[in-house]
Design brief:
Layout lengths: L6 H4 L12 E4 L15 H14 L3 E5 L5 H13 L4 E7 L2 H11 L5 E8 L2 H8 L3 H18 L3 E6 L6 H13 L4 E6 L6 H14 L7 E6 L6 H10 L4 E4 L13 H10 L16 H12 L20 H9 L27 H10 L6 H18 L4 H15 L3
Helix pairs in contact: 2-3, 2-11, 3-4, 4-6, 6-7, 8-9, 12-13, 14-15
The chain binds 3-methyl-2-oxobutanoic acid and zinc ion.
Length: 407
């Protein structure tokens, strides 16, 4: 029988084995902030970082310290005052970038240096005008430099989704030897298909000889709308860190949305063989609202998990089914993300059951005969107004009372 999973069946202590943990790396303040028009002020970044700590993310990528003095200062302040998550800064594979990142994150309780270089032939030839061998040497040397400063070093093979896998294996082996503790596999241009991306991760698990000494991370962009699906495929094939953002914001079409990845694992545990995140999902609604407001990026109404309609049931058939048993049309509880209840908007397609239920919430109880005339009046109003609010219902009740009371 299909039923909604009880909260306890998803995150019991027994299935929280350390090797099953999927680390959540938030890059809202770095990749997220890269999207046009989303620039954040210093104080706003600090506010978001504290909200991310409440969500219990494992890593906050706080910015790109070498890119500007403002970014350096934000990363440094987040590193000095946000406790709990690892605080990470991004750097290209250059000594100046790595120095700047280390200067900014070293005050953190748990600092991380993240360094990256493009490994696809397109990047190697067009961007760097170098050979594959030169790129591999730079990656290895710069990871070694970062590791001489910080024991937690992440290396990203930018455009890994379009990189020759056999070359990628060699680069990853070299950077792990040089001290990388996390190796990130970005689908930088959101080009891969879930099955393909899953096979790429499986190939890394099977072909990089020292892969057991590092965590495999994934970083999927959403150009084809597949960022979450690709992240899920990556996790199912061996990735144990997911890079994502609140509301899925990020360069171009954005990154995988943290709320989607975390809820997929929570709602469908049978597909993840004991894998779990430590995300405190009840803070998602607030995190989403805050990021949307501070970045001035509205959330589409039908956005999964955090969109205004994600827990709204509009048609009469759905509303009737929902009122008879929530599991008919609800696969997760709004309370899980910090909302108080599901929402049954009243409009032209609403049925009698939803109207009656809303009237009862307003303290109005009508006889069957009264309900027939009330519902006729409701339908006429709904056709005209499209959305019927509580105030409209109250005036309809008033009209009904006036008509039936003797003059
Ligand atoms: O998309 C990408 O490749 C990145 C890297 C810097 C991790 O954002
Ligand atoms: Zn990215």
């Amino acid at each position: 029988m299909l039923s909604m999973p009880a909260e306890s069946s998803v995150t019991t202590i027994e299935n929280k084995r350390p090797e099953n943990k999927v680390f959540i790396f938030d890059t809202t303040l770095r990749d997220g902030e890269q999207c046009p028009g989303a620039a954040l002020r210093h104080s706003e970044k600090i506010q978001i970082a504290h909200q991310l700590a409440l969500l219990n993310v494992d890593v906050i990528e706080a910015g790109f310290p070498f890119s500007s003095p403002g970014d350096f200062e934000s990363v440094r302040q987040i590193a000095s005052e946000v406790r709990g998550p690892i605080i990470c800064g991004l750097s290209r594979t250059t000594p100046q970038d790595i120095e700047a990142t280390w200067d900014a994150v070293k005050v953190a309780e748990k600092p991380r240096i993240h360094t990256f270089i493009g490994t696809s032939d397109i990047h190697i030839q067009a961007k760097f005008k170098k050979t594959r061998e030169e790129i591999l040497n730079i990656a290895r040397d710069m990871v070694a430099l970062a590791a001489s400063k910080c024991k937690d070093v992440e290396f990203s093979a930018e455009d890994a989704g379009r990189t020759d896998p056999f070359y990628l294996y060699k680069v990853l082996e070299a950077v792990i030897d040089a001290g990388a503790t996390t190796v990130n596999i970005p689908d930088t241009v959101g080009y891969t298909i879930p099955d393909e991306f899953g096979r790429l991760i499986r190939g890394i698990v099977n072909n990089v000889p020292n892969i057991d000494q590092a965590i495999i991370s994934i970083h999927c962009h959403n150009d084809l709308g597949l960022a979450t699906a690709n992240s899920i495929a990556g996790i199912q094939n061996g990735a144990r860190q997911v890079e994502c953002t609140i509301n899925g914001i990020g360069e171009r079409a954005g990154n995988a949305a943290m709320e989607e990845v975390a809820l997929a694992l929570k709602v469908r545990p049978e597909y993840f063989e004991g894998l779990y995140t430590d995300i405190n999902t009840v803070h998602f609604a607030e995190a989403s609202r805050l990021v949307s407001e501070l970045t001035s990026m509205p959330i589409q109404y039908n956005k999964a998990i955090v969109g205004r309609n994600a827990f709204a049931h509009e048609s009469g058939i759905h509303q009737d089914g929902f009122l008879k048993g929530r599991a008919t049309y609800e696969i997760m509880r709004p309370e899980w993300i910090g909302l108080s209840e599901a929402y049954l908007p009243l409009g032209p397609r609403s049925g009698r059951a939803a109207v009656k239920s809303r009237l009862e919430k307003l303290g109005v109880s009508l006889s069957d005969a009264q309900m027939i005339s009330f519902f006729e009046a409701f339908k006429l109003l709904a056709d005209e107004k499209k959305r019927v609010e509580d105030e409209d219902l109250k005036s309809l009740v008033q009209q009904l009372e006036n008509q039936s009371s003797p003059v």
